[in-house]
Amino acid sequence: MTKALYVAALESHSGKSIVVLGLMQLLLGKMAKVGYFRPVISDVQEGEIDNHINTVLSHFDLDIPVEDAYALTQSQMVEMFNDGRKGDILDSIISKYKELEQRFDFILVEGSDFSSDGSVIEFDLNIDIAKNLGIPVILIDNAKGNSLEEFCGNLGSAVNTYIKKDIELIGVVANKLRPENIDLVNKRLNLELKDKTVVFAVPRVANLSHPTIREILKALNGEVLFGAESLNNQTGSFGVGAMQLHNYLNHLHENSLVITPGDRSDIILGALHANLSDNYPTISGIVLTGGIIPEPSILKLLEGFETHVPIISVKQGTFDTTNAVGNIKSRIYPESKQKIATSISLFNSYIDGELLLERLKTYEAKGTTPRMFQYNLVQRAKTSKKHIVLPEGEDDRIIEAASELSALGIVKITLLGNKEKIEKKAMQLGFDLSHLSILDPGSAPNFESYANTFYELRKHKGVNMDIARDSMLDVSYFGTMMVYQGDADGMVSGAVHTTQHTIRPALQFVKTKPGIKVVSSVFFMCLENRVSVFGDCAINPNPTAEQLAEIAISSAASAEAFGIKAKIAMLSYSSGSSGKGDDVDKVRLATEIVKKSNPELQIEGPIQYDAAVDPLIGKSKLPNSEVAGQASVLIFPDLNTGNNTYKAVQRETGAVAIGPMLQGLNKPVNDLSRGCTVEDVFNTVIVTAIQAQEK
Fold this sequence. Notes:
Layout: E1 4-9, H1 16-28, E2 34-41, H2 51-59, E3 70-73, H3 74-82, H4 86-101, E4 106-110, H5 119-133, E5 137-142, H6 148-164, E6 169-177, H7 182-192, E7 199-203, H8 206-209, H9 213-219, E8 223-226, E9 238-240, H10 245-248, E10 256-261, H11 265-276, E11 283-289, H12 296-303, E12 311-313, H13 318-327, H14 337-350, H15 353-361, H16 370-383, E13 387-390, H17 396-408, E14 412-416, H18 419-429, E15 437-439, H19 447-458, H20 465-473, H21 475-485, E16 490-493, H22 499-510, E17 520-526, E18 531-535, H23 545-561, E19 567-571, H24 582-597, E20 602-607, H25 609-613, H26 615-621, E21 633-635, H27 639-653, E22 656-663, E23 669-671, H28 678-693
Parallel strand pairs: 1-4, 1-5, 2-3, 2-4, 5-6, 6-7, 9-10, 10-11, 11-12, 13-14, 13-16, 14-15, 16-23, 18-21, 19-20, 19-21
Antiparallel strand pairs: 8-12, 17-18, 17-22
Helix pairs in contact: 1-14, 4-5, 16-28, 17-28, 19-20, 21-22, 23-24
């Protein structure tokens, strides 16, 4: 079973607490440790606790500190969104969620409330959160106040939006229906959402929308006169006590709230006696309006009642009080035992919890989102801190990325170059380099040792000691030798130097892994909703079929090593058996080589790019393929195609391209593009550190 479920609403006051409370009760009966998380909560006063969190944690006695049960307040979220920091919103949520994920067997995630200024962005935000957390959704909507056409149309549109974003909906709850409309809505939604999800219809229950006396007291800023111990009484209907008592008594109903001016002692005393009588329904409370307190003799009489119905006094007049009570949007609090019990009972009666759990068992996350991928990279790098050398230490981008990486404690960094120049530049740019090392190859303590090692390794190629010393003055050679000698775990270069200049030393003495003939590269392309692996886009100009097959196998291994399920598409200008010519024949042969040598791999080729990544096109062109339309590893037939395609995708879609990451070397040495950004450097260093962990 998947480890989490996201409960999302389409508007405020949807009644999602029914689903949350019911599911939590069900899950705690199935698992030892169930967690609860809210990505975004409504703003709360200092010292107060979000009501949803307080209710769930206290009622189910969950061992979660309040500050761990949410990521952001709504005002924080809106501020970050308005500042163009949507990525930071998701990063904060992912980080908090992942901390809980380590502690619990299952996490129930409750979406936002649509309760203030941020509501206009919350629909999309809920989708983004569910997508980035990689968990399925149960969607709930409130039917109250909508026509059948409006309600079913809105819900159907929302379902389609979620599905288009590759989010699995394990269920839809149509809530707060008139009981007589249950079958009608069920039939209509099941027809519209057939084969998309399962539908549950829940009737409207009056006492869930009626406020408690405590809520009325707070909303009207009232004063408690009697019955403070009964403020959690649940109100039913309410009416104004303005007529004579004998007429008013006929208007009392179960859990009636009596609203009357404070000087109507006849109504007050009559309602209290009615509450004691077996012939009249129970009174939930009395609200005295106009700021009028009963006379002392009446107060003395009221004190003599053994069972105190809560009586509160408010400043507002009777008309304003009645309107205010009618406008209160009631909530469920930890003390609302009756509402909690009603909610759980509703869930058990109208929502098939066991069916939802069965659907969770078959859920399979559809790929990894870019945010989750990058988060996982950082977390993996932190598990075993590696030492990465950056030869181009005098470049501004390298200095900034190194400073950030070092400050975050993700890796140990050594910069190569003139120490005075690097420190001066860092000071001018405002970056702190105090936590990393700076080495000038010519004055480094191990310079002679490195030169001698290089001489021994390359003397058969005509290298003498003078050439060896000159080579070690080159930062690329010196950095590579640090990796070779174990003085660094990996190297990242190429921001200033060419690809050949970066990888030539590695090919000369770091060498390839046993059984590997081809050093190749991949980019991790962080697209809008998925991460794809592109190879080879940096090293091999025109690989043979055999080389192409090895690139595909290496790329699949890289994808799996970084948590991406490998489905390999061998790209060409035609799909299936339709194309002819040397270029497509090469791809076809490479595909067959992979199938024979690694039959466990899922591979398709030749196949066009659109058929590889678009489910509809893939199904139409190759209907029986297990890869078409869902490829995660895309192998290009030559460097010209691969390099241009990755750059086109990167520039036109805004995708983050992490890499190139070199495959096949004994130790990790990775190349940067000379047009790289600080983010590119940062990500490539992290990838290199993870590669080093595998050694």
